[in-house]
Amino acid sequence: MEKILVIGALGQIGSELTMAFNEKYGNENVIVADIAEDKNNIYAGNVFEKIDVTDSASIEAAIKRHRIDTIINLAAILSATGEKNPDLAWKINIDGLLNVIRLGIKYKLDRVMVPSSIAVFGPQSVLYNTPQETVLVPNTMYGVTKVVGELLGDYYFKKSGLDFRGIRYPGVISNKTMPGGGTTDYAVEIFYAAVKHKKYTCFLSPESCLPMIYMPDCIRATLMLLEADRSKLRHCGNYNVGAMSFTPEILADEIRKHIPEFTIDYRPDFRREIARYWPASVDDSSARAEWGWKPEWDIEHTVADMLRAIREKNL
Ligand code: NAD
Ligand code: SER
């Protein structure tokens, strides 16, 4: 693992994960790519490539030009946007993924990492302490693409020896880049609303309980899996990873410990139906046993740190 290409590097996770790669492996070894322009010049210290993940030739050119041996593909359409445009979700999440997989095999890359999601689960899954291996019949196009992505990763690992890795991220909470059209976005929006307006209208219902992870833990988990010894891994792209679980009501109570006048009301929309069939919590014993996963951030510390970081922005 000497030269990493991060596709989708301008998104919520990419914009922070790439900085962690820079710190760990050196900017000169991290090539960043996105379909969008780096308007804020956050990657002034990296080579930036404008790449559409659905355009195999542009990925191939970057692999050759920079002698890439590892690809992290973060380009995706998330759950809420995917329900509005399922064809686009399939195109980017599956056609794009297949481009990365095929090139990974062709150029014998060391490894390919592509995130999965708690969206792989659905109405027939056990939704509390959800096991890693269970019924996977999601009811969103995003979830369908994530199940297919996991299966493709597993298939090409067995068939072609491609070292494919991925975590089923819970909802990711962060304060650098806003989330890109998911069902768990409320758990970021709420902090900005609390600091700016002291009130928030939530698009889920008060009892929608979902697993969440704070960005520092998300990055740590990703680096741990990326660097794990393949011989110790029994899975490819489907690791459950847990950190904390809460409902909007519990999160609002925690925010009120810092902002007593904060109020929340509820106007649930189609995203409530998506959240309804996602797990409340996940069993991440495989990640713990195979690559030593253990979360460090709970709701109490996450809320305190999010409010501190957003207040410092002076919005
Ligand atoms: P995001 O929407 O914030 O970022 C996606 C990035 O991909 C954007 O910068 C976008 O410009 C880029 N992109 C979109 N189409 C592209 C294309 N055709 N070619 C190249 N780049 C393109 O997403 P994110 O939250 O950073 O998610 C990254 C990965 O993690 C995705 O696979 C997502 O499914 C997964 N995930 C995220 C969460 C979460 O809560 N953020 C939870 C579970 C899984
Ligand atoms: N945060 C993501 C979403 O809500 C979960 O994969 O779509």
Keywords:
11 helices; binds nicotinamide-adenine-dinucleotide; three-stranded parallel sheet; binds serine; alpha/beta; single chain; 2 domains; globular; Rossmann fold; UDP-galactose 4-epimerase, domain 1; 315 residues; six-stranded parallel sheet
Strand order of the largest sheet: 3-2-1-4-5-7
Q: N-to-C SSE series? A: EHEEHEHHEEHEEEHEEHEEHEHHH
Query: How is the biggest beta sheet arranged?
Result: 6 strands, parallel
- The quaternary organization reads as single chain
Question: How far apart are the first and last residues' alpha carbons, in Å?
Answer: 40 Å
**Relevant CATH superfamily of the largest domain:** NAD(P)-binding Rossmann-like Domain
Contiguous uncertain segments of 5+ residues: none
CATH architecture of the largest domain: 3-Layer(aba) Sandwich
Which radius of gyration do the C-alpha atoms yield? 19 Å
CATH topology of the largest domain: the name is Rossmann fold
General shape: globular
CATH class of the largest domain: Alpha Beta
Report the total helices: 11
Q: What bound compounds does this protein have?
A: nicotinamide-adenine-dinucleotide, serine
- Helix fraction, binned, reads 40-55%
Number of strands: 14
Average residue-wise pLDDT: 98
